Amino acid sequence: MSNTAHSLSAGTRENRHYSVLVVGGGQAGLSISYYLKQAGVDHLVVEKNTLTHTWRNQRWDAFCLVTPNWQCALPGYPYRGDDPHGFMKKDEIIAYLDGFIAMVDAPVIERTQVKRVKRQDDGTFAVATSQGDYTADQVVVASGGYHTPIVPRMAERLPAQVVQLQSSEYRNPQALPDGAVLVVGSGQSGAQIAEDLHLAGRKVVLAVGEAPRCARFYRGRDVVDWLADMKYYDMPVEKHPLREGVRDNTNHYVTGRDGGRDIDLRKFAAEGMELYGRLDDLRDGRLHFAPNLTANLDDADDTYNRINASIDGFIEKNGIDAPPGGVYEPLWQPPHERTTLELAGSGITSIIWCIGFTPDFSWIDAPVFNGRGYPAHTRGITPVEGLYFIGLPWLHTWGSGRFSGIARDADYVTQAILESLRERTPSCDTVAA
Predict the structure, then answer these.
(1) 277: helix, coil or strand?
(2) Claim: this prediction has a pTM higher than 0.85
(3) Contact by Cβ (8 Å): 311, 267
(4) Which residue range(s) make up the domain with 13?
(5) Which has the minimum average pLDDT: 1-15, 142-156, 165-179, 241-255?
(6) Domain termination site, one of 353, 373, 397
């Protein structure tokens, strides 16, 4: 149990009803608690594992932020270090979160799984947990959207001697058996894990997906700094060209490692990394890949150049003095599309699945989900009165699931909670703890 949280004992607590019950003790749930405490609202944060568990236990050893430190802006707790344009490493991120946990001092019960949430006839919510039952006037779901790792059924047919890990289980190259490593997926995790292995001198086979990429630095500044000035991070989802479809987009791959740099898969290929297209199947001892490596690399580069071109336009429009720009030219081209690889002769002894997660909100009994299990909401407010979500990708803006935008979302959801509580108790300005 976290020694910096206001931890509570489920077995001895008499109070089983709260004005607000928050499910999830990551940065989203803690941000809600910060604002609820400021407003004097009694509440409880229920965490399945321990506070900020994912950051501590589902990141590899060399993990670092891919956005600059200045974007770490949790409510009441902005980054205060001496390297705002650097990228915190794993231990620094944990230290930052520990400071936030101590400041918030949330009323929390850890190692407690919420098994069911259901709105009752009287408008309150019944909340069943592994530590007993609760009721609440309102519920905030802050458990994120990355719950169930995606591993294809073909994994069941792989030889038992091939070690299989999901990206959240990977720690470092030394923890894997000797031999080549197949990394499946080239989003942020896949590209960075492939780089981690490559830099360690491991033979890497990378199944490249459709993830886009972006530059780390362009025309004298971090691309994130340019996009911030261009107000991209303030764009609400309803004004994005893809509208809600942007929530399904794969994140651009780039890294903050060693002070930040591009991730160029073509450069890795020129240095010996084996690139293939999307992994489709395993049949007769052979891995089968889609013939789309060239297209995937070209599409990623097109996005890279398109973002840079938008920065060029911003610089020109505003008369900004900046170093000259340019267009990325491919360093390497696939000589041909390779669509099969004999597993036994490849030297592959381990596979890391980096193809994402699916949400699992099956424990919420409420008519707010679409056919893909994603909740309908407007800035986290659902059609079911008293039920809210926070911390989801593009809940409102690009930063909604990140350190940079969670404060704005948490404040907005908290104001909706307070308004609802005022309607329930019109004679009171707030609900005292």
Answers:
(1) coil
(2) yes
(3) no
(4) 6-147+359-424
(5) 1-15
(6) 353
